[in-house]
Design brief:
Largest sheet: 7 strands, parallel, barrel
Shape: elongated
InterPro entries: DUF5693
Pfam family, one: DUF5693
Number of strands: 12
Number of domains: 3
Transmembrane segments: 350-369, 376-397, 403-421, 433-456, 468-487, 508-526, 559-574, 581-602, 614-635
Keywords: Membrane, Transmembrane, Transmembrane helix
């Protein structure tokens, strides 16, 4: 019965791992098909650079196009913009009356007493511009506030100050000019409280000739109450949402969930950041975003004087050239990007993968408490039933995140505990330490495969959703491993073993080392996920060296902390000196935790995560072998 029960659980785990591997492979194939990166610059920025040197805008844009830049970001036109371009003329009624005769069209209306001082008047000689301006004001203000006087003058029953910031679509003249140079156009649209669920659709319909939109400012159009209408309009008119990573925009997570796979990851460096970093740093950051995080669109802001050296035009052309060269060297293709068909994980697949995670959790529990096989089967069936119930209740995403987190806690812990629970050897060999560490990483990869499957859908690949509980997944395995080896030091009851451990005498030097280790762990936690603490310049330089030396930079906490401590723990195990395993093994768990965490960044290509892991393991084995050899010499026989 015991053997049959164990075989059932192992079979379930095996099937789940195979499914996770299959879904991971499907994700890998999708990543291979998606190698395009779109490079975009901002028209307003390019105008500024050209103006600094009195260089013709068209000539500069042609040079930019020849470098490989395929798109131009254009902000919606406003009344002042259109006025500056000569597309219209507008004034307050009070201003027209005060100036007297200055415009024949307004003069006639003024003589007839039609001009009202509290209204705004817009002269629109062009039919196509008139139509666009009229409809945008109609959608934003309501038809009752707009009136045509004759064929070409629009009277608006609003103060001019209220009209200045209303977006009026993309200028036909600018669109024709930019398209004629071979660029795609990406509209930049900002939030406007005039738009709501009844008029946001026409607003997007007017932009349907463009395949994507990037929203400007701290808020997405329609935030906070009309995002659902915006999402529906984007999908209806097949306009993709450019989701800018890192930069905070209220409403972008909600909108990302609404549009689903019709979302494109965008990376940009804001002007205030460019003032603080070098050109080389900016180039590295942009290329890394595309190579390592599958960002599909780089919206490149230029360096502006006084933050340029020499000619602003030449400086920024070289900047663009370096970025594009870095992309090409990374094997990426330049050109317009569109969303690729996304992956989905079905409810049945979640159930199978979740069953595998449950088996791992039960095996970890069995390491602490000898659970009879019949109870393990009952616990397994209860947990699987719970997973099925939660899934049927419509909480599939919650299940994916929760089970992935459980896998991240369970398998690094189980890998270290099961591997370092073996008996020691009389003869020490560094090769034995290597095999022990490789076994720990191999067992951790079981959890990685399950996580691959659980998070193999477009929401995680596009970073619309992320692996939840990063800090819990970092801390919990360390605590679990420490507790296990504390309890293993003594026999008897749980309370008795804990009391015996707490009565252990330690020297002052051990206390100092312990507090230092706790401080280092606190820094590690604060630096995990989104950085809370700043990165020292020395570490930045070291990271830069690693990034240059390796295709994918290995994680320093793996090869400088985790692996050396795992090798030290392996040495203590082999020499049968297990008293301090609760410290060395627990802190060494940082290595498998970090490996799991690397693969949990689903927006990062699998090849990059795998390369980073292999690089870290290689360096860790070299450093760890040295640590193990030195430790063996100082351990008393």
């Amino acid at each position: 019965m015991v053997k049959i029960g164990k075989n059932i659980l192992i079979t379930v785990l095996t099937v789940a791992v195979i499914l996770g591997g299959y879904l991971g492979y499907a994700r890998y194939l999708a990543e291979l098909q998606d190698r395009n990166v779109e490079v975009c610059v901002d028209l307003n920025d390019i105008k500024k650079i050209a103006a600094f040197e009195n260089k013709p805008l068209s000539a500069l844009l042609k040079e930019i196009r020849e470098l490989g830049v395929s798109s131009i970001g254009i902000f919606e036109e406003t009344l002042p913009d259109a006025n500056a371009l000569g597309e219209l003329y507008y004034a307050k009624g009070s201003g027209i009356l005060r100036l007297g005769k200055f415009n024949p069209r307004f003069d006639k209306l003024s003589d007839q007493g039609i001009i009202k001082d509290d209204k705004t008047y817009i002269y629109l000689p062009s039919d196509i511009v008139r139509k666009r301006i009229y409809y945008h004001f109609k959608w934003a203000l309501g038809e009752q506030n707009i009136n045509f006087i004759g064929n070409d003058i629009l009277e608006i029953d609003k103060a001019e100050e209220e009209l200045r910031e209303i977006g009026l679509g993309i200028s036909e003249a600018q669109a024709t000019f930019i398209s004629g140079l071979g660029f795609n156009i990406i509209p930049r649209v900002w939030n406007d409280t005039h738009y709501h669920e009844l008029n946001i659709g026409p607003k997007i319909a007017a932009l349907q000739d463009f395949d994507k939109i990037i929203f400007e400012g701290e808020e997405i159009l329609g935030y906070p109450n009309n995002l659902r209408a915006l999402g529906a309009a984007l999908k209806q008119y097949r306009v993709n949402f450019g989701n800018i990573e890192i930069i905070s925009q209220y409403g972008k997570s909600t909108l990302g969930g609404l549009v689903g796979n019709d979302s494109i990851r965008v990376h940009s460096i804001a002007q205030d950041e460019l003032r603080k970093i070098s050109k080389a740093t900016a180039v590295s950051r942009l290329v890394r975003a595309a190579r390592e995080r599958k960002v599909k669109l780089l919206y490149i802001r230029p360096f502006l004087p006084p933050y340029t050296e020499g000619s602003p035009v030449a400086y920024n052309l070289d900047y663009l050239k370096q970025v594009i060269g870095g992309l090409q060297q990374s094997g990426l293709t330049l050109g317009a990007t569109v969303p690729v068909p996304g992956l989905d994980v079905s409810g049945r697949q979640i159930l199978i993968l979740g069953s595998g995670v449950v088996v791992g959790a039960l095996l970890l529990l069995n390491s602490f408490i000898n659970v009879p096989i019949i109870f393990m089967i009952l616990l397994f069936l209860s947990a699987v039933s719970g997973i099925a119930f939660i899934g049927l209740a419509g909480y599939g995403l919650l299940l994916q995140k929760g089970l992935a987190l459980l896998a991240g806690i369970t398998f690094p812990s189980l890998a270290v505990i099961s591997t370092l629970s073996k008996k020691g050897k009389i003869i020490f060999s560094p090769w034995d330490c290597v095999l022990i560490v490789l076994n720990i990483i191999a067992e951790t990869m079981i959890g990685v495969f399950l996580m691959f499957g659980l998070l193999a859908d477009y929401r995680f690949m596009l970073s619309l959703e992320t692996f939840a509980g990063v800090k819990i997944a970092l801390l919990a395995p360390i605590g679990i491993v420490a507790l296990y080896f504390i309890l293993e030091q003594e026999k008897g009851s749980l309370v008795g073993r804990l009391r015996s451990f707490l009565s252990t005498k330690v020297s002052v030097i051990i206390l100092v080392i312990g507090f230092a280790a706790l401080g280092a762990l606190a820094i590690l936690i604060a630096r995990s996920a989104n950085f809370v603490l700043p990165v020292p310049e020395l570490e930045k330089s070291f990271r830069g060296f690693l990034e240059t030396a390796f295709v994918a930079r290995p994680r320093t906490k793996e090869f400088l902390i985790g692996y050396p401590l795992l090798f030290l723990a392996a040495t203590l195990l082999l020499r049968n000196k297990k008293k301090w395993l609760w410290v060395t093994a627990a802190l060494g768990t940082i290595a498998p935790i970090s490996v799991f965490n690397s693969f949990s960044h689903i927006h990062t290509p699998i090849v990059i995560s795998m390369t980073r892991t292999i690089n870290g393991l290689g360096l860790g084995v070299i450093i760890g072998t040295i640590v193990a050899s030195l430790a063996n010499r100082f351990i008393k026989t």
